[in-house]
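Ticket #234: bound-state structure for cytidine-5'-monophosphate.
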Amino acid sequence: MRQDPIIALDFATEAEVMSFLAQFDEPLFVKIGMELFYQTGPALIDQIKALGHDIFLDLKLHDIPNTVGKAMEGLAKLNVDLVNVHAAGGTVMMQRAVEGLRRHNKDIKIIAVTQLTSTSEQQLHDEQNIQTSMEKAVLNYAQLAKQAGLDGVVCSPLETAMIREHCGADFLKVTPGIRPANSAKDDQQRITTPEQARQLGSTHIVVGRPITQSDHPVQSYHQIKESWLNACQN
Ligand code: C5P
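RESOLUTION: The complex was predicted; output attached.
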């Protein structure tokens, strides 16, 4: 998989996506999430692939093991590079997800969402009723994902060093919650700059609004890409 920043294509229509992508004349790594996929369906995937881009299909599956396993068999037939589930679905659900995917495809990587980067520690305690620190809660999910045979996790860049220590350097750490210095935080809580994310051990960063809502998306993408790729990993 490319190491380039993964651009979150959080648009509602195919037309918006295509006009956004038309500004770029290079292969990208893009993320298609629920907002887009539920509007356009799988047809858009082939169109984006035909442009030479890698695709992270971010549907965050979370259901009973049988349903997730069957759904993954379906996703395995799509032309994507990375898919995901919620670790909160449990070990058996994650194992069935891997089995379903591998039945039809050996190449697509599969990762688990640990805790959404929009979740604060207070919400973790008060709403999810998980009474450990955020770090411990995330590490627990990362270790379960590794034991279940997944390729990595989605996590905050603030948690990657700890996950690398326990799950290894090769275990993918895909991190949203990225904001260049002085840009709007939006609804993200646990954020870092692209440079900090690399220094902390992220293997991939996901960036949405700082690029998609920018007045100059290509320029913003290149600034973020340079700071990400040029920073040294500790
Ligand atoms: O616009 P922004 O850079 O905040 O976009 C981040 C993207 O990463 C969104 O598409 C969001 O759904 C996704 N994401 C996240 N936190 C997670 C998992 C995915 O923000 N833990």
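RESOLUTION NOTES: The longest helix spans residues 91-104.
TICKET STATUS: resolved
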